[in-house]
């Protein structure tokens, strides 16, 4: 697939890297020559120094033969204009990054589609939604819902107190009469393992389970996690994500938001309905104590500084907060934050890449998620009539070794798969895949 990315900022660079790794023909446009030179030295792509809103520069990139045009410059207006121009010049599919929720309303999305913008992506809104989801179940590092929560992916840190620690997957399966979940991957010391029956759970493993709402309790019990309801939430940072998170939590939780900028604090207090907005430095321990940090069930750090977010979450955990969420935009810090037990990690680049990536898959895909603490991805494929995946039981199909099938949604019902499961046309199938396995499994669904 021929892909043009307009904007070489953090999101554009990460998406470019992801597309190059998937062997697409990638062209990256930006007006910062030095930035493009650095990117060009590390990735197999073409770079063009130019304006993302210049018709001549877009023509130079041969946008008329572009299969997918992704506009992710720093400013919303540039993003929309770039996507409109690309569509008019012949790009087949256009995606524009925005930061205005009004544009996502159905009637407005249709308006933009008429202008030539096929899809709008708002990473901050998606991040806020992910944070809201993470607060539903305490004790997990990551939660992803498929088909409105009929199937769920949990990322859970395994500790010495877990009943499954030092047991193989086969031994764990024998602990229960009914199969309530599948272990689709294990992240161990920075490496992702696609496990088989003889793989053993170890202390400090980050295990990924596919389950159903009915099986979620068993996952938590087997992982040694105690569940409790979150009622009181403190948010550090009045960024766009912080504001969106507060708006999503109002009415369900008691929310406090700490923002260091006085003017922004005033605007947030006027906008938010029931959130208590506090003007102060959230790095100040005395302020956190005064505002009742010890009574908080959850702490969400979403300032513009990854280091501040990590340190603040560490501080909150020391003060007894049981659920912490940190926005970590510096990719180099993700492993560090995972290893020191920060909790749930949020990264806008990965969220945006997940949303965009499904447009590059030839098979029918209804959901894609790039995992924060693993190089693997989770995809929800739709099985096509006559595809190889429907030609026999899973145990007979010789699935790639770097792929695991976790569960199926069939006629609205969730199924935790076994080797005897046979996929039928129109099944939605949740697949966990390493980068090397994505194209292999994609062919089986096409």
Question: How would you characterize this protein structure?
Answer:
The protein has 446 residues and is α/β, with parallel strands linked by helices. Among the domains are: 2-121, Rossmann fold, CATH 3.40.50; 229-321, Rossmann fold, CATH 3.40.50; 352-445, Regulator of K+ conductance, C-terminal domain (Alpha-Beta Plaits, 2-Layer Sandwich). Helix content is 31%, strand content 25%. It has 15 helices and 22 strands. The chain has helices spanning 10-21, 33-40, 55-60, 76-88, 106-115, 123-134, 169-173, 216-222, 240-249, 262-271, 285-290, 306-318, 334-339, 348-357, 435-445; strands at residues 2-6, 25-30, 46-49, 68-71, 93-97, 119-121, 142-146, 151-157, 181-188, 191-193, 206-211, 232-236, 254-259, 276-279, 298-301, 323-327, 344-346, 365-370, 377-382, 403-410, 413-416, 428-433. The strands form four sheets. It has a six-stranded parallel β-sheet, with helices on both faces. β4, α4 and β5 (93-97) form a beta-alpha-beta unit. α1 (10-21) packs across α14 (348-357) and α6 packs across α14. The relative contact order is 0.11. The mean pLDDT is 91.
